[in-house]
Specification:
Layout (H helix, E strand, L loop, with lengths): L6 E14 L2 E14 L3 E5 L6 H8 L7 E6 L2 E2 L5 H11 E4 L11 H11 L4 H14 L15 H13 L5 E5 L7 H17 L3 E6 L10 E6 L2 E7 L32 H110 L9
Helix pairs in contact: 3-4, 3-5, 4-5, 5-6
Amino acid sequence: MIGKAENIIEVRNVKKIYRMGRERICAVDDVSFTIRRGEFCCLYGVSGSGKSTLLNLMAGIEKLSSGQIIIKGQNIHRMGEKGLAKFRQNNLGFVFQSYNLMNSMTALENVELPLIFKHIIGRKRRKMAKDMLAKVGLKSRLKHRPKEMSGGQQQRVGIARAFVGKPEIVFADEPTGNLDSKTSKEVMDLIKEMAKANHQTIVMVTHDKRLTEYADKIIHIFDGKIENIELIERVTQPAENVPSETIIEQNINTEQSIEVDQNIEAEQNVVTEQNIDVEQNIDVKQNINEKQNIDVKQNINEKQNTDIEQNTDAEQIVNAKQNINAEQNIDVKQNINEKQNTDIEQNTDTEPNIDVEQNTDAEQIVDKEEVTEQPPETSVAV
């Protein structure tokens, strides 16, 4: 669990009440939240919601009615004017909606201005200012005054001025309010990139929903109160082994602050290993299934081949039996035919003999009868 030492800003039960005659207007009503080092925090709400007033309170520009604001462990509203001014010079940077550049100064001179208050010598601060203007894409505009530059270019000068001293915290009040959508994106990309490179904390006020996409924490404000705090995945480049974190959403109305600390890299490694194991198991199972399918197919083919061979053998046996039966039938037929032929021959031979014998007997009988019937011859005397 990350302790309070990691919270670079703490806002505790802050109220800001304006008095107009007998009327009391509560611009900020009992607000509490924390901002961690290196976090990009967005105060988001409609116009008149109290977000800009809250930013001014955090920067020490306006005084609290009640509550506490602690920055880097120091209660800024207990400081004197000189102490607070020095604190801002050393720790805070500002980007304004209206740029707030000195029209009588060149871009280079405007960026040098905060370094003068830090008592940095001329040659060094000019080099730092030139390098910063080059980073924001204005290397060719060093000698130009604000009126000689576009709105986007003026805001780039404002960003260079805010970041040149490498403050730990940068407050940005509607930094793209006077810019078109294309230039707004360029400016926001520049702020995000520079803050990430130097591990700086950003507190930005906006009413533009699109700009909240750059934030790690979005504090939704309405009528001076916090409706809820939306915590998005925090992606930072820690300087000294500060772990990356994934944070869940919180609802401030419940007056509870939940902090979840997770090690993303460890979880990702575990998930990756598990995925690898699962994929390997799937591959093994697929190989086993494929092998089993091959074995089953082979067994089926072998069985089919065996069935075909058995069928072939059966057909051969049937054909053999049929051939035997056919031969037997032929033999029987031949035997029957031979027997019939023999009987026929025998009958043929017998019948003529019978007829011959019968005829012979009949002829003999006839001859005898004829002999008997003839009268005896009579002898005549001469």
